[in-house]
Amino acid sequence: MTPGLTSRVAARAACTRHPRAVVLSIAGFLVLHLASIPLAAQRTPPTPPPIEAETGFDGLTNGVSPQVDFDLDRATFEETEGPEDGLGPTYNATSCAGCHGTPLTGGSSQVAELRAGRWRDGEYTDHAGGGVVQDRAVDASIQEHVHRSDNVLALRLSTSTLGDGYVEAVADSTLEAIASHQPAEMRGLAVEVPVLEADGATAIGRFGWKCQHASLHSFAADAYLNEMGITSELLPTENTSDGHPIDAFDTVPDPEDQGEDLGAFVRFMRSSKAPPRDATLVDRREVRQGEALFRQIGCATCHMPDLVTAPAGTAVAGGAYTVPDALGNRVFHPYSDFLLHDVGTGDGVIQFGGARTRNMLRTAPLWGLRTRSHLMHDGLSLSPHDAILHHDGQARRTVRAYRELSPEQRRQLLAFLGSL
User: Fold this and answer.
1) How far apart are CA 242 and CA 49, in angstroms?
2) How many other CB atoms sit within 10 Å of the CB of residue 391?
3) Is pLDDT of 36 > 60?
């Protein structure tokens, strides 16, 4: 018997007598094999394809909260507040649903707030008493008014909050990547803003007409104070009335909300489904052709059809919020890049980002467009056609392309918008 054959027979005999040696040999091979693979490849499983976000105007939860909790939180969102709850003394609305109710609770509105301030020598200053001039007061003596010195006046429609849980769950890096890949002449601006609940941390803003908030918690606290006059632990100080104290009319100690209502508002918004397309129109030929034209002439550069949320477990909003399973790795269709752009309709107000943002506004999400009768930030455009023609600045080339469409093509594009 040859030496090689002898050794193989001996080895086979040894394995027969000691089967554990076989296991150890295989284990050794695996250790050596895995050691040759880069650690990143070993530890990073392939990313699964994103799941479609929940949509619907049906009043059902998207899965973040159980339905029973969602219904309770919606009731709080709809609840009418009074002075005994801390309402006012100056305010715009008596409930969240008063400004967010079309086509159902959490949606958009024809209601517009009034903002005012002063622009002088390259400096912007809010109206005395706060940037929002409230339209209502618990006493006529403290009714707010625009000052003669206010040379910046702006109406802003209340925006829809439906589907905003998905928007909050988008990673900052995703918004930054969108901006970096846009053509220079149409590039959006991502602004860092404070996250009120994150102990001084900042994140990229995405809520409000100026992208002034990065989290729904901060957004809700701002609205509770500036639209309803109710203080919270995040914003515990009352506004004044045109700069004058209102203590004599405020009988509830601050903060007026200890977190219960604010928490309900945030859970409700995070749990709401995104606006759906009109299922009866999506498959129509003219709608499909209109969508192709929408992309072809450049509308989709800013009104981006598709975004994907961060994976579940990712910290967002300056680390203050962790993306839950129901929102993680979801693809949704807002038709917005949630960045600031100058499209010739700027309101002159500066909130974050400095003077460069003075004439910039957030790209308005187009999902749910068919449910709105007043468009653009000021609500003065009454049809998609009018709204398109009011664009300028960074959108000038796209508007020119729209004007050059044939009547049939324009009808197709508007049919597509009517399906959103």
Assistant:
1) 53
2) 20
3) no
